[in-house]
Design a protein that fits this description.
- This protein is mostly helical and 417 residues long.
- The protein folds into two domains: 149 residues, Orthogonal Bundle (Farnesyl Diphosphate Synthase), CATH 1.10.600; 205 residues, Farnesyl Diphosphate Synthase, CATH 1.10.600.
- Strands 1-2 form a two-stranded antiparallel ribbon.
- A hairpin with a 2-residue loop joins strand 1 and strand 2.
- Helix 4 crosses helix 9, helix 4 runs antiparallel to helix 16 and helix 15 packs antiparallel against helix 16.
- The longest helix has 31 residues.
- The two termini are 43 Å apart.
Length: 417
């Protein structure tokens, strides 16, 4: 997975510290709306702000669940809270926040709505990860036992063979509860009718896309799909839109973005989100365990139909490389997949040029996303933050700061002269 997004403070100078309310905020001076102290604080620590709100929300929710039943509260609700607060980079909330900020300075009502949707996104992510680990039969998550493994271990003393099934069943229920709480938070967002309708429609579409992409993923494992096009469709649905594009869209809706800006942000988010997934596929195959929160080669062990594997297969067929085809058709998804198999698959990914091609595609996708951001009239501070977030998500070198870009341009121009 990509590294955690930073939370460097922005350097916008505020002329007024009062909350900016629509029609009642501080006056615009020199063509710029001043930034309130509250906005500046959140700008400086989006992830931490969401973390604090999540902690308060989950404390309330666990208490409610415990009031229903003490065992349910301890076994299910508390596990949900620990999982949600026990890691994660808060990537989606950051894209939502900066998508809104890219459109201007929000008032208090929109700030509250954005942060509530950020909490909902993190609960939806909990649902997705917990269910994903069950479907993938993953043993670990964030360097700890996966939630279904942890649930099964709780009743290991019973020594019953069915405890593994119990663990998976309990984890599915944890994910279901996380989804219910996510929907509760999204539905309770206080917004004017026009914004509420668009947020509700986008939220509903995002959930369906996420499930559709996940289904295509598991279907590809059983059907042994080798189509690069189908692999990209699944990656776009399960990750690109859900991780970057839809959070950006939600933020842009809250920011009252015009259609041109909304299209540019969505297009940039789709490209960066796809780059995010392709980088994750590369990391699964080639990165060391220290760079991931799950064991390296996990997708290869389950035979997940990634674009990387599909491209290698297509290249091997095109070249008539029977040895490569044998490795690609016999190793991924094998129950006894071991380190030797991993090395063999890596060799094929290198030999067919699939690794290099996917890395180049990641670079092209990020470059396209940067061009899309440049087409829209975005707040310059927010544009810079989105550029950094997208580069980090794709594991690409971060863009230079504004002053560095100017200095680099001057050097190049001097060399040309």
């Amino acid at each position: 997975m990509p590294t955690d997004e930073g939370t460097g403070a922005t350097t916008v100078v505020a002329e007024h510290d009062g909350a900016d309310r629509a029609g009642h905020g501080p006056p615009v001076r020199n063509g710029r709306t001043p930034v309130s102290a509250r906005v500046r604080r959140i700008d400086a620590e989006v992830a931490q702000t969401v973390e604090r709100r999540l902690t308060r929300l989950l404390t309330r929710r666990v208490a409610q669940a415990t009031a229903v039943d003490a065992v349910f509260g301890a076994d299910v609700a508390e596990r949900l809270a620990r999982f949600t607060l026990g890691g994660g980079r808060r990537v989606r909330p950051q894209f939502l926040w900066w998508g809104m900020r890219a459109c201007g300075v929000p008032d208090d009502e929109r700030i509250d709505a954005a942060l509530q949707l950020c909490e909902a996104l993190e609960l939806l992510q909990t649902c997705a990860l917990v269910h994903d680990d069950v479907m993938d039969q993953a043993a670990t998550r964030r360097s700890r036992p996966a939630l279904h493994v942890d649930c099964a271990a709780q009743y290991e003393a019973s020594a019953r063979a069915s405890r593994h099934r119990f663990g998976e069943s309990a984890a599915i229920l944890v994910g279901d509860l996380a989804l219910a709480w996510a929907d509760d938070e999204a539905a309770a967002t206080n917004l004017p009718g026009r914004h509420a309708d668009r947020v509700r429609e986008t939220w509903s579409r995002m959930r369906m896309e996420m499930v559709a992409g996940q289904y295509l993923d598991v279907r590809g494992e059983i059907t042994r799909t080798r189509s690069p096009g189908e692999a990209l469709t699944a990656a776009c649905l399960k990750t690109a839109r859900y991780t970057v594009e839809r959070p950006l869209q939600l933020g842009a809706i809250l920011g009252d973005a015009d259609e041109t800006t909304l299209r540019a942000l969505c297009s940039a988010g789709r490209g960066a989100g796809l780059a995010f997934q392709l980088r994750d596929d590369l990391d699964d195959a080639f990165a060391g365990p220290s760079r991931r929160d799950k064991p390296v080669g996990g997708d290869l062990r389950t035979g997940k139909p990634t674009y990387l594997l599909a491209l290698a297969h297509a290249r091997a067929e095109e070249d008539g490389d029977r040895q490569a085809l044998h490795v690609l058709e016999s190793c991924p998804g094998r129950p006894d997949f071991d380190e030797t198999d991993l090395d063999d698959v890596r060799h094929v990914l290198e030999r067919t040029g699939a690794r290099r091609s996917v890395e180049e595609k990641v670079g092209r996708l990020i470059a396209q996303s940067m061009r899309e951001l440049d087409t829209a009239p975005l707040d310059p501070v927010a544009r810079a933050r989105l550029q950094t977030l997208m580069h980090r998500a794709a594991g690409a070198p971060e863009p230079p700061a504004e002053e560095d870009r100017g200095r680099s341009t001057a050097v190049v121009e001097g060399a040309v002269k």
